[in-house]
Amino acid sequence: MKFPVKILFFGGLSAVLIALQWSGPSFTEESLKGTRVLVTGASTGIGEQVAYHYARMGAQIVITARREHVLKEVVKKCLDLGAQKALYISADMAESADVSRVVEFAEEHLNGLDYLVLNHIGPSPYRMWDKDLDHVRWLMQVNFHSYLHMAVKALPRLEKTNGSIIVVSSLLGKMCSPYALPYIATKFALNGFFGSFQHELAMKQSNVSITICTLGLIDTEAAMEKIKGYIDMPAYPAHEAAYQIIKAGALRESEAFYPWYTYYSTLFRDWFPYHRDQVIRMVYKYKP
């Protein structure tokens, strides 16, 4: 009897949440024209697509990643798409000095900052954990500490512009799974810090919003290569994920989920733990 009651409650709650979503404020691309945006991890994948969307909407953009020659090509395409301004700065997010330098560069060359999009990730093998603690420390610096550093560095400027911080996270920051333990640890840390930071900013009546974007499996080249032979499930397009990220940030939503199943997966995680674990073990293939 308890199980059907849960299902009924779950279905009713889902209907209410969908209704609230449809009744919320609407997004217009014109609202982003001329806005000043810093996008990290923008040489490829989701970050690159985020840059292209902002460019098409007429924003002013600074992009960063490690590979300068790739950044040059992305900047050229951003200008072709209609960006009012597009600049790049190559940087290594494992280096604290580079993290500060990127924010300073963006603030100086854009004469302020409206959106800080934190998207970069460090490469990490997709396999059973091999107890490489040095790699975990390095990945925590790139995927977590540098996010905090950039947010704190940019906060004073964002407070002057009623700005926003957009944090690109993952369903693996809300749901434990095998084969990606170091990566998952960094994403759980991101969600915990920025979720709590949202409360602190609200309590001090700050005008800066934080949007945490929870993504499922996206069809970036890096993601597809990592999961090959480990996971058998559909991937969703990076350009659509990027658009939803931008939309959520513009609407100043506290959380956003893409694709559709990510939100329901987080509910399923806590409500049906036994079934959750069975599904995870079915989706992931064991590879010694």
Automatic annotation (TrEMBL):
Keywords of this entry: Oxidoreductase, Signal
SUPFAM superfamilies: NAD(P)-binding Rossmann-fold domains
Gene3D superfamilies: NAD(P)-binding Rossmann-like Domain
Signal peptide (residue range): 1-19
GO molecular function: oxidoreductase activity
Transmembrane segments annotated in the record for this chain: none
Superkingdom classification of source: Eukaryota
Pfam family, one: adh_short
Family: Belongs to the short-chain dehydrogenases/reductases (SDR) family.
Protein name per Swiss-Prot or TrEMBL: Hydroxysteroid 11-beta-dehydrogenase 1-like protein
